[in-house]
């Protein structure tokens, strides 16, 4: 009887996750049907329409800055009580298009309207959650760390391409680990063509794979070389496909990308973007460091964390999930823009849980749940009119989440690397699985 109930209970978290995101999807569909586009997709569509008119998908530097300043003005008026519902103003005030033209071209040429885009993102969320949780643990309840994440939900409700890119990144990383370089190349090329700084993830993953892959360095080096050549070839073909005008416009945008962002505004006018953006670059800017030195400092910090990771991982065979988690944390640390820590909780929890015991597990789970709760609390207080932070409790003056969360998660992984080695990790996982199986058999007999 108990065994039967347990089998019926097993799919419950997946059904709950499906119901949660189904309701979120229906909400978005209703929103789109009423003529209101999700805020991020709205900026993509505006770039699509500009390209179709033969115009540049990019605003001028002055126009881009004016949009960022309008967000700051909305925040200022909201805090002063002159605006009661800033969400209405933000929803209609789409941000500037900040990507290479590939994303806009794909949306235009494949006729991807808002409904299809939302369904693609829904598939990406389901795909990431299903693959990651099913491949790291036998306990499906970990998927609730995705369900309960305001970072994931807010990205989904905004129809932000980030969720799709993270799904493609996981798929590409898995293909590389399985030594399917040719299959991984198109996925990597697509991700990097949309957000070039995702290259930080694949550089970290490649270096760690060379050190840690069970099949040996030569075999994985060949895979990485094939993938790299394929990526470069595909990127070259895509850039050629843009045509001369888009190439010139994109080159101008990339050369002056800092000026197009809020980074070029006076520090006092960078909020709320400087609050939402939880990256080392933004943290250095908030400390009063100039843009030029902040960029160098952020790159140096990423390089330092990568070097320490390589030093700790030297001659240790690691599983795919550990290598992915390390590269994932390094990516979140090194990227210049990141308004959410999407999937951080589920990645860290499922990787570290098997090697922790007793109070350690309790402390890890409590910390991750507290982080998730803080994001929901930021939303609640924003709705109540306390501030316009929306995504995080940190402030521009004290960006504690920027300097604490990702470095701490990375530090735990690096510190526990010997226990996360391929031999130790798989042995622990097998012992845990055997224990769970024994308990299930005992319950079935009883």
Shape estimate? globular
Total of domains: 1
User: What series of H and E elements makes up the topology?
Assistant: HHHHHHHHHHHHHHHHHHHHHHH
Number of helices: 23
Mind summarizing the main beta sheet?
none
Strand content: under 5%
Helix/strand/pairing category? mainly alpha
Distance between the termini: 8 Å
Q: Helix fraction? A: over 70%
Backbone CA Rg: 22 Å
- Give the tally of β-strands: 0
Question: Residue-averaged pLDDT, rounded?
Answer: 89
Stretches with pLDDT under 50, minimum 5 residues: 435-446
Can you describe this structure?
With 446 residues, this protein is mainly alpha-helical. The protein is built from 23 helices and no strands. It has one domain. The protein has helices at 2-9, 12-33, 39-52, 61-79, 86-92, 102-109, 114-136, 144-147, 150-157, 162-177, 181-194, 199-212, 217-242, 244-255, 257-260, 273-276, 280-286, 291-313, 320-334, 344-352, 358-383, 400-415, 422-445. Helix 7 crosses helix 10, helix 11 (181-194) packs across helix 13 and helix 12 (199-212) runs antiparallel to helix 19. The protein is globular. 42% of the residues are buried. Residues 435-446 have low confidence and may be disordered.
Short description:
The chain contains 23 helices and no strands. The chain is mainly α.
List keywords for this structure.
446 residues, mainly alpha, 23 helices, globular, disordered C terminus
Indicate the topology.
Layout: H1 2-9, H2 12-33, H3 39-52, H4 61-79, H5 86-92, H6 102-109, H7 114-136, H8 144-147, H9 150-157, H10 162-177, H11 181-194, H12 199-212, H13 217-242, H14 244-255, H15 257-260, H16 273-276, H17 280-286, H18 291-313, H19 320-334, H20 344-352, H21 358-383, H22 400-415, H23 422-445
Helix pairs in contact: 2-7, 3-6, 7-10, 10-11, 11-13, 12-13, 12-18, 12-19, 17-18, 18-19, 19-20, 19-22
